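Subject: for your reference before the review

Hello V.,

The reviewers asked for a structural picture of the protein, and I figured it would be easier to keep everything in one thread rather than splitting it across files. Below is the amino acid sequence we used in the manuscript, unchanged from the supplementary table.
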Amino acid sequence: MQAYLEDSDFTVHTASNAREGWDLVQQKLPDLVITDVMMPQVDGYQFLKQLRDDPRFQSLPVVFLTARGMTGDRIQGYGAGCDAYLPKPFDPDELVAIVNRLLQQRATLKATSAEGEMPDVADMARQIAEIRAILTQRGAIVQTPSSVKLDFTPREQSVLDLVVDGLMNKEIARRLETSVRNVEKYVSRLFSKTGTNSRTELVRFALEHGLTK
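And here is what came back from the structure prediction:
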């Protein structure tokens, strides 16, 4: 399956079980996940629940690829929140078609969300400005290295600096001459590395730990 997907110009990362898969998902922030249902220790349903419980992966497309192909199994899979259920044996061309469809749907959803983003963007910028003002007034900005070792790439650091300045993803993308999708990935990585769940939490964390200019 990996070879076939790579022949179809996809980049594929593999894990031998759900625990490795969870670590890999957090590191790579993939556009889509394909998982078996029957796995030792943590099965596909538990793995899917773990993904859906994390705000970063609630809309991440997940494909169940499994030998359990009865109607009841498929109903259970869709009920659990998978986006596609493909029983084995499967046609590789069908898998590629499903992957392409889900990725196109996700891209369309992101584009639609971006078009209606402006009211939330203004509110988010206001919150960020308020956090900076509060921390500055209270003398709470600690310009010292974080007690936790955080290894940001140069591009992640650039994105972090611009988030702290109150810029949103579209503005950051224009400033760095990259795509909004890439900025979203960098911001998600910053959330993961800092243990934060929102831009305001990220800004507060960065300012308190001296992680930005």
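For the response letter, the relevant points are probably these. The chain has two domains: 2-114, 117-208. The first strand starts at residue 33 and ends at 35.

Happy to draft the paragraph if you're swamped.

O.
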